[in-house]
Amino acid sequence: MRAVVQRVLRAKVEVDGGLLAEINEAGLLVLLGVTHDDEPAHAATMARKIWQLRILRNERSARDIGAPIMVVSQFTLYADTNKGRRPSWSAAAPAAVSEPLYEHLCDELEALGAAVERGVFGADMAVSSTNDGPVTILLEV
Questions:
Q1: Is the link from the previous residue into 134 a cis peptide, with omega within 30 of 0?
Q2: 61: closest CA among 75, 47, 45?
Q3: What mean pLDDT, rounded, does the chain reach?
Q4: For 98-113, how does the pLDDT look when each residue is reduced to its tens digit (9 = 90+)?
Q5: Strands 2-15 and 27-33
Q6: Catalytic residues, which ones?
Q7: Which domains does the chain have, with CATH numbers?
Q8: pTM
């Protein structure tokens, strides 16, 4: 499992021109990719890492200040660009594997106390954000 975690001042997700999810305060935008051998334990571990990651201002975590977290599925994080000009997506898990793990990670974050906003798994989304810093961290479990 792989996540790109960005410290943001605001973020939003639109689907078909309509606003789906939004955070309007300092928080985290998480782009989440799932690979074939990921399992629920990986999602739980990733959720704890995200919740406790001290990348917000003054070295605080989302847990410390109750910062909102927006999670968006992002299979392209497992793109293989070693050959040619067209990425291969073979390392990304199919929806039957990745969607339940995406939902599990979001549920785990909520169980930890996070206010979670979600994208729509598999949808064509317009994701926009205002990065703070900018701070962007790559996490893998």
A1: yes
A2: 47
A3: 97
A4: 999 999 999 999 999 9
A5: antiparallel
A6: 74-76
A7: 2-140 (3.50.80.10)
A8: 0.96
